[in-house]
Design brief:
Structural class: alpha+beta
Shape: elongated
EC number: 5.2.1.8
CATH class of the largest domain: Alpha Beta
Number of helices: 5
Number of strands: 8
Keywords: Isomerase, Rotamase
Catalytic activity: [protein]-peptidylproline (omega=180) = [protein]-peptidylproline (omega=0)
Organism: Calcidiscus leptoporus
Protein name: peptidylprolyl isomerase
Largest sheet: 6 strands, antiparallel
CATH architecture of the largest domain: Roll
Amino acid sequence: PSGLRIEDIAIGDGAAVYAGQRVIVHYTGRLSATGETYARTTRGPEGKPFTFKLGGGTVIPGLDEGVRSMRVGGKRTLTIPASLAYGRRGSVGATNVRIPPGADLVIECEVVGIADGGLDTSWTSTLLSAENLPLWVLLAVTWAFLLVAAAPEDALPSEISSLVPIVLGSQYRAPQ
């Protein structure tokens, strides 16, 4: 009734997905009129699938509705009317392809998994990686300098208070 057309390529033999779950998909999105790709996930060993909360309103309504009745391992082609995509406003896809106002979309998608439902902590491995160690050290040193600069001189141990003029240089004014 919404105008979404669904063509199952493979049903999938994994678990069914439900609203509220974080689903993991690979997809390719194309403009219906031209076939031009506006977004896609990468595949292979270095591939990055796309994860979203089903029914959470974080993706276009046509993708949300089209994935809702799938199973893990399932593949579909969704033909999405503009009313379930970007409507009259249009958008710009991940590949910098302009999605014109009123454009219908075709999305080929495959559900590859269901996320564990916990918080997405994949960013922590990057944030805490060895390559970011110099940034963490700089941040710690900066905070230490700020704390020293903000503290009254008589509240600091003498070893630290003697360093304040050196650290702060000409901006340091000894209390009168």
